Amino acid sequence: MSTKNLLVELFVEELPPKDLKKFGASFSSVLAESLKAHGLASEHSAITAYASPRRLAVHISAVRAQADDKAVSLKLVPVSVGLTPDGQPTPALIKKLASVGADASVVPQLRRQMDGKAEALFFDSTTKGTTLAAGLQEALDKTLAQLPIRKVMQYQLADGWSSVNFVRPAHGLVALHGADVVPVSVLGLTAGRDTHGHRFEASVDPVVLRDADHYAQQLEEQGAVIASFEQRHGEIVRQLQHEAGKLGLTPIDDPALLDEVTALVERPNVLLCEFEKEFLDVPQECLILTMKANQKYFPLLDAHGKLTNKFLIVSNIRPEDPSRVIGGNERVVRPRLADAKFFFDQDRKKTLALRVPGLAKVVYHGKLGTQGERAERVQAIGHAIVNLLRLSTVPYTVDDKDHFDVLDSKVREAAQLAKADLLTDMVGEFPELQGVMGGYYARHEGLRDGVAIAIEDHYKPRFAGDALPRNHTGTVLALADKLETLVGLFGIGQLPTGDKDPFALRRHALGVVRILTEKALPLSVAELVKAAVPAFGTLIDDPTEALSTFIYERLAGTLREQGYSAHEVEAVLALRPAPSEVPKRLAAVRAFASLPESASLAAANKRVGNILKKAEGTVEAKVDTALLKEPAEAALYEALQQVKPKADAAFDAGDHTASLQALAALKAPVDAFFDKVMVNAEDAALRANRLGLLATLHAAMNRVADLSKLAA
Length: 712
Description:
4-stranded antiparallel beta sheet, 5-stranded antiparallel beta sheet
């Protein structure tokens, strides 16, 4: 059967810009998949999605007018139920046939086939293929029902009586199979071939589509609309780079802003604007944020990443003289920048320290008190972290000028002031700038070296790929701040559930993991959590075990994303080492797994672990050489005496790879032991000694990782 290309468009009032991209993807994919399910489109059909502020559309190639007929086989009843001994249909069979639209005349054509242990009757027939009109109608209904709409609106139809619910009022429906209109309807609209172009710049209205294949071309030529989201996106990027390049500048890199602007315009036209240079005295983060968030403008940066007084706008019209558009946008942005300058000037009249008492009036959480109490807890946790670093068995070196006493003093000061910018006018207007503004105000006040940077950095990393704190003070403060959030909320039972994580605890846990790993802090998760718990007094239950598990789960996820296997990750994290040690332990496990002896040793380790678990009472890792009766157990003991010191020495020196590789020499004696020695001997002393030998082996093998996790 011949095919034609299909075009479906729903013409609507301006759609929510932040949702347009996913609306377009959903509209095209759900509709196409539904047509494929009906046999009207194939897996080879090309799908082209279109989405502009006032339309959702899809072009699908090679669509049939009617699907192929289908052979259908229906199981009726067992032969013993459907036929009498002389082969006549029973009332049960007649009733069953009637339910599928047949009668007794088809009984001779019924097919017999074994169904399990009994023979059954099957009715074979052919079902007429779905027509495009019927299949497309069902696909459209399904597509609109599954559109990811966050909030619907109800509006009246043209008859003045009926009403429908949709994201925005819909005013047109196009459905073309080649050049033929497909008779479908939705939202009170009947399909035709007319659509509409740009509100002001279309050369004709309506745009009468010739066929499915000229949709994008006619809209662009006659309607002044680039229908494709991707094409508009690319055109905006091209124009931004072209205009910025003429000045040797770079537009701000913000994919979310770019997507939103793409969803706001149908015919992008990038224009250059500027503002007074005096506004550049305001921190550039403030100016950039107000231009992006409030006006959807693209600030321009110089070669050093410093903000200039030039910016780009993406207009939806292309007048011959753009001066009025440019002037209008420059007038609009000026009051916004003036507000930012006013906030900045006013905020600097009051120090951060003078704002701290006000935090006692800002509620953080109903069960965890105020931001003032939270700041005190962060200060206590920061002090505890410094002491852990000071006492760590693995030396941690801070700058010569920044010995632990000075570090502790800086952390205390930064923790006390870190939340004070929440009470500033600038952060009140732009919450995204918390921390950043605190850093600016701290520098303005001349706070000692490192404290201002720590205040600015203490929320880092804010998101995946974000930079980490730049100095030791900021590192400790950021870790303390995240631990305060995690310990406090876990301690009152506010855990994430499913995809709901209102306090971003998963992000905080990933931040803890990144800081510990990338800053090489020699601290375990459990000791950090335990050190943070006392800061809460009696407000919380001890969440050490649950929270430690939660953090290691986040670490496991990131490691798998980095390409480590589940077995490798599980083997290392089973021992819950300090996150800073995990990379080299994983490298050691991967090297060990490549040895020919690894599979056998991993299996033996698993067997040893199972034996020790089943043993009665506590098994001590000690051996009485006088009780080594069998040559194989004596040989294993001698091998351990030679291998264990080498493995331990390498481990203590931090060479985990050499530590694991030293164990390869144990393969032969371990295999011989299990072949020739009965562990559960009847003699209690012998049994205890052999279990002690296995416990010694188990401890020696599992210092770097739990090797049993590598066993298949």
